[in-house]
Design a protein that fits this description.
This protein is an alpha+beta fold. Helices cover about 20% and strands about 35% of the residues. The chain has 3 domains: about 100 residues, Glycosidases (TIM Barrel, Alpha-Beta Barrel), CATH 3.20.20.80; about 110 residues, Sandwich (Jelly Rolls), CATH 2.60.120; about 45 residues, no CATH class. Strands 1-2-3-4 form a 4-stranded mixed β-sheet.
Length: about 280
């Protein structure tokens, strides 16, 4: 994904992360120092806590409650002096934008979510009634009575809580594929109710990861639809069936031609023709 982003925009992306989220979501890839990091670590004591084996940090978000005129904002340090910061902000040559049609994006794994056919459910299935969870944890929901071939689900997710950094992640893996943060700066309130996109699942299991901190986070989940891989006929069998069809058509044409010849002959001889089916 990082490579495709760089191709698309012509600029090497930067990674915003924190030590705990990096460890939670990934391992320690060898390419981590190929990208500049914007690290969130809420402390006033430098240096920031970095992901394992990483050194290439540029920005350090040390708080999310820096008060200006009575309003709290994110505040960041730059890893350098004022002169270096000015040089860092110098405009770069505007890149040539590559249209999405000009590149091929290879998704990880063997499942392309764009190939799934969505099917909506008339009566949504309630997976989880309003449940409050504190701290960080996981709930595994087994999806019963799902049709064969289901590879993804479309859910209604309602979340509320008091801590704006609380979040809920849904997915078919331990870490979750779609993460929804209870962030007032995004949702303008400390609760939201939304319909997700297609969330991939494996073995009919939906993993619900959450972090409710000390105050807890409450969530509610329904299934409104699912996605399944369409069944395509075997190409070779389809070719054989088409060949058989052509042979049947050719045989039928020969029979029709023979009938036409007989009709022509009998009409010329003045005979009465009786045609039976």
């Amino acid at each position: 994904m990082l490579d495709e982003t760089e191709i698309l925009w012509g600029i090497k992306p930067k990674i915003y992360t924190s030590y705990h989220m990096w460890v939670y979501l990934t391992t320690s890839p060898s390419w981590i120092n190929d990208y500049e990091l914007w690290v969130a670590h809420y402390t006033t004591t430098p240096p920031p806590l970095l992901p394992p084996h990483s050194t290439n940090w540029v920005f350090w978000q040390w708080t999310s409650t820096y008060i200006i005129d009575g309003t709290g904002y994110d505040a960041n340090w730059f890893n350098g002096n004022e002169e270096q910061f000015t040089e860092y902000l110098e405009p770069i040559e505007e890149p040539e934008i590559v249209q999405p049609d000009d590149i091929e994006v290879e998704l990880p794994g063997d499942l392309d979510m764009t190939t799934l056919l969505p099917k909506w459910i008339d009566n949504p299935i309630v997976l989880q009634t309003f449940t409050t969870a504190t701290g960080r944890g996981q709930q595994v929901i087994t999806l019963g009575n799902m049709p064969d071939g289901v590879k993804g689900v479309i859910c209604r997710l309602a979340v509320r809580g008091d801590d704006l950094t609380s979040w809920v992640a849904l997915g078919g893996h331990n870490y979750g594929n779609a993460r929804f943060r209870l962030d007032g700066r995004v949702h303008s309130q400390v609760s939201f109710d939304l319909k997700t996109g297609m969330i991939p699942i494996e073995d009919n299991r939906l993993y619900v990861n959450y972090d409710g901190h000390d105050t807890g986070v409450t969530y509610y989940i329904e299934i409104h639809g699912y996605g399944y891989e369409p069944e395509y006929p075997d190409i070779e069998e389809l070719k054989l069936a088409i060949d058989d069809l052509y042979a049947d058509v050719a045989k039928l044409n020969d029979e029709i031609s023979g009938i036409n010849d007989t009709l022509d002959k009998t009409v010329k001889d003045g005979e009465t023709v009786k045609i039976t089916k």
